[in-house]
Amino acid sequence: MSSFTQALQTTIGRKILTGLTGIFLTLFLVVHLSGNLLLLSGDGGEAFNQYAHFLHGLGTLLYASEIILVILFLTHAYLGIAIYRNKKKARPVDYSYTKSQGGPSKQNLASRSMLITGSIVLLFVILHVMHFKYHLFSPGTYTTTHGGVEMDDLARHVSVAFSNPWIVAAYTFVMVLIGVHLKHGVWSAFISLGVKNPKITPALYTFGGIVAIVLAAGFLLLPIYIYFNGGV
Ligand code: HEM
């Protein structure tokens, strides 16, 4: 058995890899949100369509990043479930009363609901990619021409989706859950990676909260703005 596979049999090894994959997934969210905010540039979606067209033109490089992304998501989800099951095995009956121990424990609703929020986000990502990338559950694909180049009109696709109040409500709900998941997840990732210095951990906790609020609010802005604006 390789030392990597051996490390994955231990709780600490699993926590380190969960933390690392979580950090990379958070970085993906930062990049994804930055690209998506182009939808708000007030140009009818041109900048966003050009950006998506550029990404599609990367060909093999884009496919390779997508495969890495899927591996990151699945590894993170699998290890998260494995850690939870181990914890359950060690303590089959939950404490009837839980209170934050302060310091590095930071027990709260966000920490105790990681499995639920994570599972809902995973389900959301599957449906989201089927909808926005593979155009399932949509009337069809749209194309447009910018600077004489024909390309997918993804901005219109997003606008049509976010004209539906049920989709906007579902996105609002999931974006709040993403915020709750990140609030505990970002901080916890650093602790799993060995940051134990009590002088740094409170600042990291605040940092995790800020990352969660900025990402959740940034993603939330898109469906809400597009719905009330009647498109991009
Ligand atoms: C509410 C705001 C969001 C909007 C408007 C949005 C928009 C899009 C669009 C248009 C695509 C298709 C891109 C393409 O075909 O090139 C896409 C892909 C994707 N989105 Fe989102 N997204 C949002 C939030 C999220 C969130 C919160 C997550 C993760 C938790 C996420 C994860 C993904 C993933 C994994 C892909 C596939 C990327 C790829 O295969 O290249 N998105 N998104």
Q: What does it look like?
A:
By secondary structure, the protein is mainly alpha-helical. The protein contains nine helices and two strands; from the N terminus they run ααααααββααα. It has helices at 3-7, 11-36, 46-56, 60-90, 109-112, 114-132, 154-161, 165-192, 201-229, and strands spanning 143-146, 149-152. A two-stranded antiparallel sheet has the order 1-2. A hairpin with a 2-residue loop joins β1 and β2 (149-152). The longest helix is centred in the first third of the chain and has 31 residues, at 60-90. The protein starts with a helix and ends with a helix. The mean pLDDT is 91. Residues 29, 32, 36, 52, 55, 66, 69, 121, 125, 128-129, 132-133, 154, 158, 171, 178, 219, 222-223 line the site of protoporphyrin IX containing FE.
Write the layout of secondary structure elements.
Blueprint: H1 3-7, H2 11-36, H3 46-56, H4 60-90, H5 109-112, H6 114-132, E1 143-146, E2 149-152, H7 154-161, H8 165-192, H9 201-229
Antiparallel strand pairs: 1-2
Helix pairs in contact: 2-4, 2-8, 2-9, 4-6, 6-8, 8-9
Bound molecules: protoporphyrin IX containing FE.
Protoporphyrin IX containing FE (HEM) binds next to helix 2, helix 3, helix 4, helix 6 and helix 7.
What are its keywords?
binds protoporphyrin IX containing FE, mainly alpha, two-stranded antiparallel ribbon, 9 helices, 232 residues, 69% helix
